[in-house]
Amino acid sequence: MILTLDRLAAEDSSRAGGKSLALALMFQNGFEVPETLCVSTEAYEAFVSRNGLRERILLELNRKEFRDMRWEEIWDASLRIRNMFLTTPMSKALAQELGGEIGSRFGDRPVVVRSSAPGEDSVKASFAGLHDSYVNVQGIDSILDHVKRVWASLWSDAALLYRQELGLDVATSSMAVAIQEIVAGTRSGVAFGLNPNEPSQGVIESVYGLNQGLVDGAVEPDTWILDRKTQKVLEHRAAVRELRMVPAQEGVCSESLPPDLSRRPPLDREQVLRVFGLTRALEQLFGSPQDVEWTFREDRLVILQSRPVTTGMGAQEEDQRSWYLSLRKSFENLKAMRVKIEENLIPAMIEEAEALSRQDLTSLSDAALAEELERRRRILDEWKETYWTEFIPFAHGARLFGQVYNDTVRPSDTYEFMDLLSDSGLVSVERNRMLEGLADSIRSSPGLRRALEAGEAIPDKGFADLLGVFVERFGPLTTVPSAGEKAGGAVVRLALEIASQPPSEFKATDTHRERLEDEFFSKFSGERKQEAAELLDLARVSYRLRDDDNIYLGRIETRLREAVDLGKSRLAGRGLSDLEGLPEREVIASLVDPAHVPQTCIAEFRGEEEQVPDFALRARQLIGQPAGPGISRGPARVICESSDLLAFKSGEILVCDAVDPNMTFVVPLAGGIVERRGGMLIHGAIIAREYGLPCVTGVPEATQRIRNGDPLTVDGYLGIVIVGENEAQ
Fold this sequence. Notes:
Elements: E1 2-4, H1 13-28, E2 36-39, H2 41-50, H3 53-61, H4 71-87, H5 92-106, E3 111-116, E4 133-137, H6 140-152, H7 157-166, E5 176-181, E6 187-192, E7 201-208, H8 212-216, E8 222-227, E9 233-237, E10 243-247, E11 252-256, H9 259-262, H10 269-286, E12 290-297, E13 300-308, H11 321-326, H12 331-358, H13 366-394, H14 396-409, H15 418-421, H16 427-443, H17 446-453, H18 461-474, H19 489-499, H20 510-521, H21 527-573, H22 584-592, E14 621-623, E15 625-628, E16 631-639, E17 653-656, E18 672-675, H23 683-691, E19 695-697, H24 702-705, E20 711-715, E21 720-723
Parallel strand pairs: 16-17, 17-18, 18-19
Antiparallel strand pairs: 1-2, 2-5, 3-4, 3-5, 6-7, 6-12, 7-8, 8-9, 10-11, 12-13, 14-21, 15-19, 16-20, 20-21
Helix pairs in contact: 3-4, 4-6, 4-7, 4-14, 12-13, 12-21, 13-21, 13-22, 14-21, 16-18, 16-19, 21-22
């Protein structure tokens, strides 16, 4: 199960993986590489076969068709699989077989534990950055633990998505691991024998210290552009040299660069040419341009790894792998994103919505209203683009914390870390607390209840004031009030329904959270404890914004809908009918041109209107992703559009395509949640955990397979929804 570089050959590719095989070829041809052992794929196969992991992995990946799984579902499945590796002990026999040879070769010396998957680092498929590597690992137990982490990274979300993109079989994937002595170089970098953006050039990037800072994006490199034919330096882009990465007691850490080094580049001209000469020599050895990771140990140039240059070589336009990778942000990247989002984007989004709300649409002519509609659509589209490019990647902060938490605490519950993120001040939860306050007023005043039920003037000034504050802050809950209904009528109807049940008790988990915090922080010491605290704080912001950003975006969308509704009202005044499903473009065209004949669209499918013959076969058990622990039973309320929410009754199971944060005002009434979309960090799952509700996400065709009133059993532990009465009850 342990392979050495001197004995590896091309036929060992499936056992050793691309990285180890490349190191062996360089070693056997006289290039200087770190001392390396390869843990073969046979060790991986032994681990997953002897303890039932293989079957559990396949179960996770076959809850539904892999091609139908959303990114959020793949992230969650990946996290569950990773936790399986972390919490499953290595057998004594396997640990002794691997540990004996690793210990005799490296002893207590620090090492780097790198992935070396078969097919990795080939011309056709570069897996750069997808699998994990760990720098500065010491001691046999720690090395074997990090070998398991590298094995687990075979099932990371990015790796799974990449394999899907390439059409590789996830069921037969395997992983070898390269264990190398750590080379604490004074200057390190990467070199591209062929510039991915300009084939006539080569590129060298270099930093002081270890390569980890360059790879993670935490340290800016100096860059040299060279002519491939003449090896002439065409350009040198100097970096702002402030930091370098160095080995720490465990892992690596950054430190300030001494002033004498910050003033000069890490490589002189001779060293630049020497590194580039290395890339040309390796191109001759491998038969294709190479992407080389290297370091200088004193004056000796050491090759850490080499892979073919694949970026820009025939990638298809529909290839989404770069976008998948962009979602995986480092801690430093996430901290910078947080500042931008909190200090710039969120305030700008709030101000945009407030500016739109201050505008008097009723004073506009039809033509001016059409222009304003177009403008509001552009504004919303721009913010949606920001949502995808900024807010969605920032959600990785919660996922990063989850991985760190599980790696250190090793909980039996993969999602225990979510309890540390809940109650983070979500806007939707604050809105629901205000609704509960309105309901409390109704419970305590029979006279107020009678007046509200009769549609009379509100006799309680305190209630009226609180209602006004609610509508001002959160809107009327619907922009399509019932005929003759006063402003805030939908809020009153919902508050009456909430008041019909006992007061809602929000999940009291302060003591539980404190215990989890103490256990998490106890795993760290010194500076690492401070970093852990910063990561938890960032994760809470990431978790909160995953929900809040949609609330802010919803406010802008509400202002667009207001303009659309006003436009439809004016068209109705002209005698036009069937305007409910009229698209915005038709509203605009009709406002501009009175002679335009608007084309209405077909009404969307509504669950309660589906006609299913009594003899039709129907699913009894639906499989999804477990997203909120617990089991509950109740009648289904299928939500196909936001107005359906106003009919929601206490104890019903919320069934929908996806819970929008602007819809979560009914959650205090719900007995459970079922969604077509999947993932622990989608809004339905977030709000379900806040209220302690069973939740199953990722249920295919949930709104088609479940009808209003169907008795449902929601099992949030296993991710199962049973349709129909439970015969055992």
